[in-house]
Amino acid sequence: MIGYVTLGTNDLAKGAKFYDAIAKELGVGRMMEFDSFIAWGEMGGAPGVALTQPFDGEKASVGNGTMVALQVADREQVQRVYDIAITQGGKDEGPPGPRGDDGFYAAYFRDLDGHKLNAFCMVGPE
After folding, report:
1. In a structure prediction context, what are the per-residue pLDDT tens digits for the chain, which is 126 residues long?
2. From its phi and psi, is residue 60 left (phi > 0), alpha (psi between -120 and 50) or beta?
3. Shortest CA distance to 32 belongs to which of 58, 3, 11, 9?
């Protein structure tokens, strides 16, 4: 249903470095790129993530309650994506670990513009 998610940025070049590093870990690259917009993923594949300067020319802002969830292969990749995000200047919003008792394992972080993301996988019991 979702083709891609677009997040606003006030510094496309700086934000691109952040998302390039995470996309590399997830095995994808840039699928579209323009002067004010970059999208990561695979055409026709799973939903992608895009970073854009707002079309209206106003300053980008963060949506309260908005989050992008990045599905990954396993706990180890959750850890790697989280570590990459923090190393690239992201802010911790919850380190890797189980959430609840239904096999949901996730780490939460914010990108350089303050957008909340998580890396997650579904796992069996410990």
Report:
1. 677 899 999 999 999 999 999 999 999 999 999 999 999 999 888 889 999 999 899 999 988 889 999 999 999 999 999 999 999 999 999 999 999 888 999 999 999 999 999 999 998 765
2. beta
3. 3
